[in-house]
Design goal:
alpha/beta; Glucose Oxidase, domain 1; two-stranded antiparallel ribbon; 7 helices; Regulator of ribonuclease activity homolog; RraA/RraA-like
Length: about 230
C-alpha cells in the first residue's frame, strides 16, 4: 500500500440528529466543556459571509503543501452536509481553492463547509456565496495539482487532530473538533453549559451577576495590592 498517497472510501459517520443538535450550540460553549483544548488555531478564520453555526462530519484530506489534487478528489467523494477538512503542511504561499471549486462545492456537492489550513483566492466572490469557508487568508497564487496526498485518514488542522467522521462545529469565533466517540457525552454537557452561560449573560446585563469569585481568586494567588502610584 502506498502510504502517503492513498484514498480510503469509507469512514465512520455520526448520527444525523446528533450533528444537527450541535448546530444550535455556540462553538465556545462546546469548547468550554472539552477542557478548552479542541479549538483550531485562530489563523484559520471565516473567509465567507456570516453563516451562523455550522456542524457536520469531517471528510479529511492530507494535502502536500500548496497542492489541491486530493481536494478535487475529495469534493467528488463528498456527501451533502460534509465538512471538508484539509491539512496543508501549514503552507501559506499558494491558494488551495478558488471560485470554481467553491461553486462546485456549494451547488453540486452541497457541502456543509470547508476548513483549510491554508489560503484561498477569489475572496470577493466567496463573500457573495453562502458556502461557509474557513482558511488562513487569501493570495492570488494558485496551487499545484500533482499530489501526493491522502483522503479519510487522521490529520492535523490548525494544530488539532481530526479523524474521519469527527464532528466539526464552526461559527464566527472559529472551528472546533469533537471526536466522534465522545460526541454524545459532549452534547449533553454542552447543552447544560449553554443554559448556564445564557443565565450569566442575563445576569451581567441586569447587574445581578455575582463577582465575588474575582476577589477570592486574587487572594488565593497572593496578589499584592498597593494603595499608591507606580513611579
Amino acid at each position: 500500500m502506498p502510504i502517503g498517497n492513498r484514498i480510503f472510501l469509507r469512514r465512520p459517520l455520526p448520527d444525523k440528529a446528533l450533528v444537527a443538535a450541535f448546530s444550535s450550540i455556540p462553538a465556545a460553549n462546546i469548547a468550554d466543556t472539552m477542557g478548552r483544548s479542541c479549538a483550531m488555531h485562530p489563523r484559520i478564520k471565516r473567509m465567507s459571509g456570516a453563516c451562523g453555526i455550522i456542524a457536520g462530519p469531517a471528510l479529511t484530506v492530507k494535502s502536500r503543501g500548496g497542492d489541491n489534487l486530493m481536494i478535487h478528489q475529495a469534493l467528488d467523494m463528498a456527501q451533502p452536509g460534509d465538512i471538508l477538512v484539509v491539512s496543508n503542511d501549514e503552507d501559506s504561499t499558494r491558494a488551495l481553492m478558488g471560485e470554481v471549486m467553491f461553486t462546485y462545492a456549494q451547488y453540486q456537492r452541497r457541502l456543509g463547509g470547508l476548513v483549510l489550513d491554508g489560503p484561498i483566492r477569489d475572496a470577493d466572490e466567496l463573500r457573495a456565496m453562502t458556502l461557509p469557508v474557513y482558511a488562513t487568508g487569501s493570495t492570488p497564487g494558485g496551487p499545484h495539482k500533482d499530489g501526493p496526498g491522502e483522503i479519510n485518514v487522521p490529520i492535523a488542522c490548525g494544530g488539532i487532530s481530526v479523524a474521519p467522521g469527527d464532528i466539526i462545529v464552526a461559527d464566527g469565533d472559529g472551528v472546533i473538533v469533537i471526536p466522534l466517540r465522545d460526541a454524545p457525552q459532549v452534547l449533553e454537557a454542552a447543552k447544560k453549559y449553554r443554559t448556564q452561560d445564557e443565565a450569566k449573560v442575563l445576569a451581567a446585563r441586569s447587574g445581578t451577576q455575582n463577582r465575588d469569585w474575582v476577589q477570592k481568586r486574587i487572594e488565593e494567588r497572593h496578589v499584592e495590592i498597593l494603595d499608591k502610584r507606580y513611579c
